[in-house]
Design goal:
This protein is of the alpha+beta class. The protein is about 50% helix and about 15% strand. The protein is built from 3 helices and 5 strands; from the N terminus they run H-E-E-H-E-H-E-E. The chain has a 5-stranded mixed sheet. The N and C termini lie far apart (about 75 Å).
Length: about 210
């Protein structure tokens, strides 16, 4: 083979190799761009979901102020109705009639707020946490007692025909004499805290 033919064959092979490498790099470039676009889209969706959840949280904070006071530090609603159970008692029937009427109205206020938000965000799920607290005294089972009182309130609302809807799951808890959200005046710690949490997930824009 002559020197000219060898050089021609070399440059032809070299050209084919570079063309193949170009197409490989082009495919890789397109693949990387597609993956980045998918990742950016996923991040944008998560950001949109986060912003929507924050918007819903703000809406849920507007429960009737006649019955609830929102604490932004703990992100919980304090039920403003003074509920004084007898020491060691959790039976809701021990509460006077006027207080029971106020509790019923408070429950309906929660329901109305959830219903209002659900109208524009029907796919959102909620956790409604009813937390009972207790004041420090000589009673030795305040943790159990606070849970039983929260359960009594939940059942009272249920028996009053207050249905928070299929999108809302109700959880009962009792923090007893513990927890970080305490009033300096112990008697005031015989109260209920309400926490409404939107569940994250796929959110449809309306």
């Amino acid at each position: 083979m002559s020197k000219h033919k060898k050089e021609s064959f070399f440059w032809t092979s070299y050209s084919d190799l570079m063309t193949s490498l170009f197409f490989v790099m082009l495919v890789l470039f397109v693949l990387v761009i597609a993956l980045l676009h998918k990742k950016i889209s996923a991040q944008a969706l998560k950001l949109e979901e986060f912003e929507k959840i924050e918007e819903i949280k703000k809406s849920l904070n507007n429960i009737d102020s006649a019955y609830f006071e929102y604490n932004p530090d703990y992100k919980k609603h304090i039920l403003k109705i003074r509920v004084n159970f007898p020491t060691g008692k959790s039976d809701i029937s021990n509460i006077d009639y006027n207080t029971l009427q106020a509790l019923q109205k408070a429950g309906r206020a929660v329901k109305n707020q959830i219903d209002e938000v659900t109208k524009t965000n029907p796919e959102i799920q909620y956790l409604l946490i009813i937390e009972g607290q207790a004041s420090k005294d000589n009673y030795t089972q305040n943790y159990e007692l606070s849970y039983e009182r929260a359960l009594a309130l939940s059942r009272f609302w249920q028996n009053s025909g207050i249905d928070f809807g299929k999108n809302c799951e109700v959880l009962i808890s009792g923090s007893g004499t513990g927890g970080s959200m305490r009033d300096s005046y112990e008697r005031n710690n015989q109260r209920f805290l309400i926490h409404i949490i939107p569940k994250t997930g796929v959110i449809e824009n309306n």
